Amino acid sequence: MNSFIPWIGGKKLLRKEIIGRFPRDKIDRYIEVFGGAGWVLFYKENKTGQLEVFNDIDENLINLYRCIKYHAEAVQKELDWLLVSRETFYNYKRLINIGGCTDIQRASMYLYLVKVSFGADRKSFATSSKNIDNTKKLLIEVQKRLSSVVIENKSYESIIKVYDRENALFYLDPPYYKAESCYDSKFTEEDHINLRALLGNLKGKFILSYNNDPYIKELYKGFCIEEVIRNNNLSNKNKEYKELIIRNY
Hints:
Elements: H1 15-19, E1 29-32, H2 39-43, E2 51-55, H3 59-79, H4 86-95, H5 103-116, H6 133-146, E3 149-152, H7 156-163, E4 168-172, H8 189-200, E5 205-211, H9 214-219, E6 224-231, E7 240-247
Parallel strand pairs: 1-2, 1-4, 2-3, 4-5
Antiparallel strand pairs: 5-7, 6-7
Helix pairs in contact: 3-5, 3-6
Keywords: Methyltransferase, S-adenosyl-L-methionine, Transferase
Enzyme class: transferase
Protein name: site-specific DNA-methyltransferase (adenine-specific)
């Protein structure tokens, strides 16, 4: 199935390439470290007996996932009769972080901001046509898919340490190098180095998506590094964009 939200750096166009490189031996636990829109999680097979973990550092995003998992109909109800308007967008942007809202209200506001913002940046109102009704109808289906997924709100260091086992597969899609300013969560050059160090000592397996940058290639030298090409989904032109898929198996 598809994700229910757009996302900066979302892997809609690379999910088949990523899942096609999953290890063929048995994996008992699957962990998405930088969850975002969850394009890989939603597209992968939901295997019986396999623990699935979805993690992200963004508290509002994780609140949205948890509210859909446990209260999808209540989130739908909050979205009923909402019109797409600039006034509503900036009002929600102001209200979402000042407190006084329930988790369900905050989840519906955040979903609205993601859906009607430019490029899903939650910062600027999109002038192109937007419709949240289709997303609202999908929430029950999303709830079913998330029913057995463990939803975490931890740092990448913490989630890796907690779930690392020999039979684990980590999928990581960190903020891209030299594009960190496009993301809400702070991620520095030291974080890129620290992530590499953590993955170098991993007991389990990892598959990692990154931008095609010489620094990243050098940083992960010694691992399996493949260049893949996708279309640029933020451009109206049919431009191609190179990315890296990096593995330790």
